[in-house]
Write the structure tokens for this entry.
Amino acid sequence: MTDPIRIYIDADACPVKDEIYKVAGRYGLKTFVVSNSFMMVPVSPLVERVVVEAGPDIADDWIAERAVQGDVVVTNDIPLADRVLKSGAAAIKPNGQPFTVDSIGQALAQRSIMEHIRSTGEITGGPRPFDRNDRSRFLQALDEAIQKEKRRRR
């Protein structure tokens, strides 16, 4: 028997948690809400709050150690996305952009360049504000990732 599809949320700065709960509930999928501080989650046997110690990459490590092929990870963290892609899990940004095996190398390189630029004191700005279209794209991408895995398992 195949392991069930699970969703992992890198939750500390995730703006689409409510959307994930709804989609996961519709499909009956276990969802892990991983953060380094307490946060409210729906009371449901399908939703598990995981509070890890504070510190760099502790939540990422928890997720990466558990995500396997067929799982879905929602994160903006590029190194975490790289790790879970290597395990066969899907990785999706909250704006709906999927990380893929083909795109992750470029994303890691761009992240490294931007870190270097910021380390020189250059002000680079941040991402554009999250909007309704991002939310809609995310819902579509999450549904597509789940459907793709369901088809793969048939």
